[in-house]
Amino acid sequence: MIINQAMARRFWPQRDPLSDQLTIGRGAGPEFREPPRQIIGVVSDVRNGALDQEPQPTMYIPQAQMPMASPR
Fold it and tell me: Tens digits of per-residue pLDDT, 8-64?
């Protein structure tokens, strides 16, 4: 996964986040079995709202690696 600078500043203020791993959705339920994802890069922040709002922590995961939603 790739994270933005805002996420790196918030969650890794004193160190480099590269090579750390994150588990997304932990606690979502017993059927949720997402593997930990390694942080492989940090990109610049993008402002998605107004220009005077601080950028939000963001992670980028390739869509091909996301589990498919199962029909209910």
Answer: 999 999 999 998 999 887 666 666 677 889 999 999 999 887 889 999 999 999 888
Q: Is there a domain that residue 72 lies in? A: no
Residue with tokens 């930990």: 36
For 22, list phi and psi in degrees, rounded to 5. -125, 140
Residues 4, 44 contacting (CB under 8 angstroms):
yes
In a domain, 67, yes or no: no
Rounded to two decimals, the pTM is: 0.78
Looking at residue 30, its amino acid is P
Q: 43: which DSSP letter?
A: E
Contacts of 4 (CB under 8 A, 6+ apart): 42, 43, 44, 45, 46, 55, 57, 58, 59, 60
